[in-house]
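Predict structure. Chain length: 1442.
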Amino acid sequence: MVTGENTQVVPIENVCVADEQKILCVVRDMVDVNCAGIKHTLNLPASTSVARLISDLAEKFSYLSETISVHYEKQVGSEIEEIPLEQYLNRSVADVCVAGVKRHDFTINEREGCTAQKMETAPPQQCVATCATETESEMAAGSSDVVASSSGYYSGGASGTSSGDVYTFSTYSDNSYSYSAALMKSDTGYVGLVNQAMTCYLNSLLQTLYMTPEFRNALYRWEFDGAHEESEKNIPYQLQRLFLQLQTSQKRAAETTDLTKSFGWDSSEVWQQHDVQELCRVMFDALELKWRNTKQANLINQLYQGKMKDYVKCLECSNESARVDSYLDIPLVIRPFGATTAYSSVEEALNAFVQPETLDGSNQYFCEKCNKKCNAHKGLKFISFPYLLTLQLKRFDFDYTTMHRIKLNDRMTFQEVLNLNHMVDDGDTGDEDILPTAAGGKVSEGPLEDSSDEASTCGVFTGIDVGAEGEVGAVPLPSEEQQGLSSEAAANTKNAKESECTGPYLYELFSIMIHSGSAAGGHYYAYIKSFVDGQWYSFNDQHVSKIGYDEITKIYGGASVSRGYYSATYSSSTNAYMLMYRQVDKQRNADFVQPDNFPDHIRQQLQRLKDKDEAEQRQKELDKSTCKIKTFCYHPILRKKQEQRLEVHKDKTLAEATEMVYNLFELRSTLPLDCCRLVKYDEYQDTLERSFEGEEDVPIGQLLGGVKQTYNFDLLLETKRPDQQFHEYKPGGVTVKVFVVDMDLEIIHEPINVRAYSPQTVAEFKEIVSEVLDVPVTNMRCVLERFHNDLRYLWMPHKTLKSEGFFKSNKVYLEYSGLEDPSTEHFVNSRFYNLLDRHQNTIRIHVSLPSLADVEEFIKISRRHSHLMERAINCGNTTKSLENLAGDGLTPKYTGGHDPLEIDEGISDRGSDSEVDFRVKSLSLKQSKSDPSIYHNCCQIDQQFERPVRGHIPGQVRTLSLTEPGSEARACSPIMGQGIESGPSTRLSPTVSEGRTSSPVNGQSNSSQDTNTSAEFSLNTNFSSVAEFDCAREAVEHSNSDSEQVEPPSPGERTISDLDFKKEAGEDVCEATENWDGDTLDVTPSEETPDVMVVNEENIRRYFCVVSQEDDVLSRQRNLTVRVDKRITLGAFKKELEPYVQTTVDNFKVYRVYSNNQEFESIRLSETMSFFEDGKLNIKLGRALKPGEYRVKVYQLQINESEPSKFLIDTIFAKGMSVLESKKLIIPEIKEQCNIDLSLDRCRLRKKTWKNPGTVYTDSQVYEDDLPIFANWEVFLQVLDGPELMVSTSQLSVFVRRWKPSAYEFGPFEEIILYQQTLDELTEKLSEVSGIALEDVEYAKGRGTFPCDISLLEVHTDLDWNPNVTTLNSWPLYICDDGNVLYYRDRSEKLMKLSDERRKELQNKENTRLSRSCGKSTYSPRKEKALKIYTDDTPVKSQDLD
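Prediction complete.
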C-alpha cells in the first residue's frame, strides 16, 4: 500500500477562523493519464475563493494555471454534471459546492482550445507521510511538500499565532491502478520492483545484484545474438533489460514478469514463496548454463566462489588428509543442535564453523601413517574467500519436540567491516595427491574476466548511476577516493581503523536481505548500501527509501517474550537472513558503468526501451483525447443483441461516430447507413434514454460529457426499415422489449426495443409497435409481464400505459395471427396464454446419461441377481450351498433371451422391484411380523398411465392401458417386461428384496457414520467371476430422515419391456423430442402408515423437449440437453427420461451437479425442478431407498486374523424383515461378489459397534420390532464352525483367549456360550475348553477395542486377574452383552524367565504391532513446491565485445 502524504499548511493572516466550516474536496488530475487514479484530498475553509483554489491546484500539480480547467462534478439525480469553475472565479468554494454533501469531487482538465502545459520548474518531490508527532518547524524543512501560494496566503513556515486555519492536503491511490503505471519515481532516484504475488524474495535478490557494480557491468558486457523470438526465454537477456529499466526508467517500479517468464514460470509459480538463498543458487546455475562457452562462463565463480579444505588430522603424528571444496555461500548456524543459547555474532558463528570435531573412542580415525586407529581432528578450513562473500544465517530449523518447522529469532550481530584474514589457512596444505596445486586455492588477483587492458579499464568507470544522479544529485567521487572504500565507509572511524589491517580479506557490508515473518511464511526485503554515495537504502518491493545505520541494528534479531508451546513456530520477527560483503580491494572495486560508456548493444537496447516508452506515451496522449464507450446493436437479421467497444476521438462528430459503429457491427451488407442512428442507452436497465436529433455535427466528446475513464451510460445503434421514420426519444420515456409470438411454430422471437411514453394509451402503443415491426394492428394481442408469472392482458385500448403498470423497462408479448378469440374471458384458456406460461417456466437442463453398454450390462446383472435370489430363498433345504442350488430344476421366466447361467457374474445396484417371487413374499408375511404395507399394497389398480412407447410419433402421446378388467397385474423385475404372476387386481410394491449395492471384496469402510443412502452402479467396472464394484460413499440431497424418502412409482403397474426402448433400424431416439407430461406424481403420506408415501397422479401436463443429444466418444456417456417446465416433478421428469436411458425409472437415479462439481442425489420425487435454472444432472444406474429400507454394510468377523473386520458387501434391509430373511438375501450376494460359500445354519449376524462385535441376532428377531435399525447400519457376519448355539436372547456369548506364562504366548480366540450368566458357569466353561482344573482357572477382562491386544511382556501383571466380584455385570468385569473378551490362565503354571535376546525379540514384535495399530498422524503441512528455473538444453551463443 502506498503511503499517502499529509501536509498541513497554516495561514498567516490574523483572521480567527477556528469555527469556520471546512469543505472536503477530492481532486483528480485527468490531464496526466498516469495520475488519473490518484486522488488528492483538500480540507478547505468554506470562504476560500475559486480563483485561489485553481491557482493552488495549478501550482501543486505543476501546471500553468491558464492552460488548465478545473471542473466541479455536481450530482444531479443519477447523473453527474461537470461545471467549469472559470466562470465562478470571484465566488467562494462554499457557493459553488452543493450544500449538505460531505465530499466534493473536482477534476483537472485541459482548457478548451489549448494544451495543458507543465511549469518549467522542477516538480515537487513525492510527499512522504510524516508522523503525528512532527513539529511545524520540522515540516517547514520540507518546503517542497507544502502547497504554497505566491501571494503568501499560505506559508510553510512555523506560525506562532494561536488562531490559524489548517489547510490539509493528502494523496491516496485508487486500487484499480498498479504502482508502476500510476506513481512517479521515488525521490531516492532508484526504481522499485513490482511484487507479482509472492515474489518479494526475488525482488530482494535482484536489487542486490543490480546494486553490485561488478555483476551489473559484466552483465552489460554480455551480448545476446539469438533470434528475437528466443529472447523471451533467455534469462541473461531479460535480466539485462530489467537492469536497464532499473537504471533509466522514470517509473516508480518496474515489472519482473518478463524475467519470470524466461524462468519458465507460469502464473502459479509467483504464488509460491521460496527461500532467497535457494533462489540465489538456482539462478546462478541457470546463468552459468546460459553463459557456457562465453567470456562470462566463469563470472559467477570469479565473483562468488571461495575454497575450503575438508580435513582429518591425526593427533599423534599430525598427518593430515584433506580435500578441497568450492563454495558460493557460507551457512552459519544460529543455534547449535541441542543447545539453548545462540551465537551472539557472525564472528562467533564463523569460528564455530571451522571448529574441529574430535574423533575418539569408538569413532577413532585409522591413520595410514601410524597404521592404527588414532584420535583425530575433523573439520573445515578456509583456503580463500571470494570477492563477493555471501553469508546465510540459518534461521529456519526443525523442532523435533513439536515436529514443526520453526524460525530462530535469536539476536546475532554483524559488523559493517569484516576482517577474515585470520581465518585463512596459509600453512602446508597436506597431502599433495588430494589437494590441487598451490595456486589452486587462491583467488585470482587479475581482472574479473580477462587480463586485457580493455577489460581492466571496465572496472574503473568514474561515473555515477544515472538513476541516482538524476534524483539525488550525487557528485562523482574524486579519482583517488574511487579506488578505496565508499565515502561513508571512509568517514567511519571504525572502518578507517579496519582499513589499516594487513591481508587481502577485508570486507565491507553492502546488502542485507531481511525476512519478516515466521516459519509458516513472511516477507523479504533488502537494505542495500550504494557504492556511489555510501547511503543505505531500503528496497521493499515498489518502495525505495533512505535509512540510517541505526535501522540496521534493529534487524539483528531477538525474539519477543515466549508465547507458549508453539511460540517458535508461529512467532513473527524481523531479522537479517542473508548478508553480502564486498572485498575491499583498490584494484578490483569498480564503479557502475555510465550510459555514455554503455556498449553498443546496450545502447541499442536502451533505444528500443525508449522507443517503446515513447510509443506508450503517445498512446497515453491519444487516450486522453479518445472516448471509449460500449455500444450495442440489435442485429436486424440475426435478431440478437451484439456488443462492441467504440474508441473515437473526442473531436469526431456524431455522424462520423455513427459510421464507425456501423462498420464495427458490419452492417454494410445488411442495410444502408441512413437507416442507423446512435441513441443514449442504459444497458443495466435496458432502457433507451434519449436520441440526438439535429446534433449530427456536434463533437462526440461534447455529447458524451468529455473524455472519461468510465461512463454511466452506453450507446445503442438503432436500425430501421427504409420506409420507416425514426422517432425522437425525449427523457422520461419508457422502454418496452417486445417479444413476437409465432402461434404456428409455437416459438417466441428475440425482443425488439420500442420507445413509448407513460401517458400514451394502449391503442397508441399498438400503433407504434405496428410501425416498428411492420405488422398489422387489427388482430394484435398484447400481454404485459409486470413481474414473473404476472401476465396482464392489455385489452382496453383507451387505458394509459401508466395505469396498466408500465415501468421504465418493460416486457410485452404480442401475436397477430387472429386464430383465437381476443376477448378477455377466453385469454386464460387460450393457446397464447399457455405458450407464455410455458415460456416463463421453461428451463434448460443438461443431462449426462450412462452408456448403452453399461445399461445392458446392468440389465444382465440384474437378471442374474433375480434368478439367484429366487433360487436361494425359495429353496426348501436351507442348508444347501449355492452350488447345490445351481443344480436344481427351477427354470424362471426370462424375456431377454439370455441363459441366466451364461451371463457374466457380478452384482451391483440392481434396483429390482421384484427379485423375489410373490409366493416367497407371502410366505415371509406368514412367518414374520412384517408390515404388509412394505411388501405389497393391496389396492385396486384403477388408473391408467400414459407412457410414450416404441415407435410413437413425435409430439403425440400413446396411452397404454396397463390393467384391463379382469386381468392380473404383474410385478416387473429390473428388466422391464420380466413379470412375475400375482393375484388378480393386486398391486405389488416390493421393498424387502430389492437391489443390493455391490462393493469391493476387499473394500475398507471404517466409519459407521456413512452418509450414503443410495447405491451406485459403477460405470467403469470390469466384470469377472469375482466382480469388484465402487463402494464410494455418496452425498444425498434432502435426506433428513428415512421417513421422508419418497417411494418411486412402482413399475408393477407397467408392462413395458426394456426391449421397447431399443432402437429400431433407422430410428433415432432423439426423434421424440417433445412431450407433455401426463402422469406427474403427487406423493403424499398415507394416513394409516405415515412412513409409506402414496403416489397419486396429476392431470396437468408439463412440457418436456429434447433439444440435442450427443455421445462422448471417450467416456461413452450420452449427453442430453432438454427444455422442461420447471414445475414438473422429479418423478415425472425421470419417466420422461426412460426412452433415453433405456431402462425403467426404478433402475436409475438423478444427481444434481453443483458449480464446484460436487453432486448430490435428488430423492424426493414430489419436488419440482424449479431449483434447476440451467442446471446439470448426472444419471446413474441404481435406485434410491424406499420408505422402510436401510442401507447396510456387512463385514465378516474374523476373530483370529490380524485384521478381524473385513468388508463384504453393501446391501439393503427393510423394516419388518426377520434376521433369517436377511441372511437368505445376503448369502447369494456374498457368493457372487466375494466367492465365499456360506450355509444358512453356519452363519450369524451380530451388531457392529465401530470395531467391536456386539449383540448376536437370532433368526426369529424382526427388524424395527425386535431390533432397532437405522440409516447407514453396519453388521458383522460371523462364520460358525458348527451349528448355531445362540437361539435365545437370554444367552450370552463371550470370546476367551488363553495366556500361557510358561511359553510367553497366547492361544487362539474361542467362543463360549453362557446360559445362566453366572461366575460359576463361566469358570466351568473355561475349564471345559482348556482342560485346566476348576480351582486353577484365573481370568481377567481385556481392555480396549476388539481384539483387545496387550503386550506379552505386560499381560501377566497389568490385567486385573481374578477380580473380587460376585456377578458378571460387576466392575471390573462388567460383562452385560455379547462380544466381551476374557483372558484366562492356569494359576499353577509358572512364568518363564526371559533371556535378553528373547525379551528383545518380544519387544520388537510388540513395537511392530503398535506401529501397525497406531493411526496415522492427521497433521498435513502445506505441500511446498520446489524452486526450479527451466532453461533450454542448448546454450545461447554469444560474442565477446570486451
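Summary: The two ends are 43 Å apart (CA to CA).
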